[in-house]
């Protein structure tokens, strides 16, 4: 065994309380280097009567390492433990102070999980596990009240530009809620709805008022109430990293400079606040001078923004916040943000926009989830033919090992958004590839999100092309694609195994793009078969039972001599299941 590859620490994603009675343990070993790992566990105050061994499962693999995992239910909510790793006749013990070939008597040098404190438990909203989100940009989704259109509103369906408007509003969303219900949606994520001069509203002027071109606060409240009556949750977009240069406190800084009472609300590097040779003298989002960055360490700023966060949760009854540019705001602010929001609604869902490894924010004191762009990048690369199924499986395994299980169950998985090209465009406008990617989205762990119009076949490159108007003309909608989305959403919502069940790669190749994987819980076992190649293929895998059926048609699918053989069309898939 390569001892340098062994890794475990008694915290974070390696040892954590999943619920009030269960501790999850993980350990890392060199890839294909260890045959089995056993957790030796007990209570440090009564080892003799509480000792038991737990066989760990190889839960994931990446390019370099294997990851082993087990769940332990200690008798007294505390745990003392070590690991025995074996390869052939060789065994070694991994302890808190290193490795040994002989196991010392407990508890000295053993790892410890001192106690499962319920107050420290990372609890995520249970409803987010059941959610299928739909992302809406209000200006581009539906026009419901033309009388409130901005000046210069262009005809619906025109070419999107960085600065043009099409008149979509909240009434338009209200008018189409039943369409979302028909699709199967039970949660909506709105990009910002507050007063702003732009079409996207990420440069906010008034955080306490709905933009009048969308409606008003009363209309948003009625929309939320109507959504709730139909079983749909609502998440708003919080832009707390920066504001508009038309935000009144910043206008005061522009006017009064160093004498402004709001000078410390922002990061002013030199006065006057202006743009010098293309670079603002104050910190901004990127280098956009119209988006000055808040100083969220300032108590007045913090109190103002936290009051905003609480108001829309408590008074308008929204169900959560998506946090724009979340990684550029200080952790102290987000810790206080979580306390305020969860106090207003313990079931509120908090999703940060972080485009890379986000464990720092996902330890129970800040966010419930993040926008999982590493997931979308990996999925799109694979179904575009850029990597083999072996590499894909390794990268997906690495993503699963980034976070604790409760985060994996509600991480915000998306394949396109207002910040990326459209899904169909990303996949070369090949619907077969798109369907494979969507099947993976809805059969993988996490909370899936659809970007408005992807289900109808909208295309588009980078912003602003990806922000086209929703297509409501039935003759221009791809209804076959819509029906496919509807079927996949229904399959996921019907089966807990596709939401919380274990995920394992069954078959992947270093030189091929076909893959077989499974999702399973105590009730039902799914296997998903994908031919991500332009040629017909037959995939085979051992199956011990003959009670399988096609999940979408109900047709029995019988293995031959213990081997399941599944013929697939080019870029074809099949989803099988059996009841346990």
UniProtKB/TrEMBL annotation:
InterPro entries: GH (IPR017853), GH13_cat_dom (IPR006047), Glyco_hydro_13_lg-like_dom (IPR004185), Glyco_hydro_b (IPR013780), Ig-like_fold (IPR013783), Malt_amylase-like_C (IPR032091), O16G_dom_2 (IPR045857)
The Glycosyl hydrolase family 13 catalytic domain, residue ranges: 135-492
Source superkingdom: Bacteria
This protein's record includes keyword Ligase: no
Keywords assigned: Glycosidase, Hydrolase
Keyword Hydrolase found: yes
One biological process term in Gene Ontology: carbohydrate metabolic process
GO MF, any single term: hydrolase activity, hydrolyzing O-glycosyl compounds
PANTHER family attached to this UniProt entry: ALPHA-AMYLASE FAMILY MEMBER, MALTODEXTRIN GLUCOSIDASE
Similarity comment: family membership: Belongs to the glycosyl hydrolase 13 family.
Protein name, entry field: Cyclomaltodextrinase
Species of origin: Paenibacillus wynnii
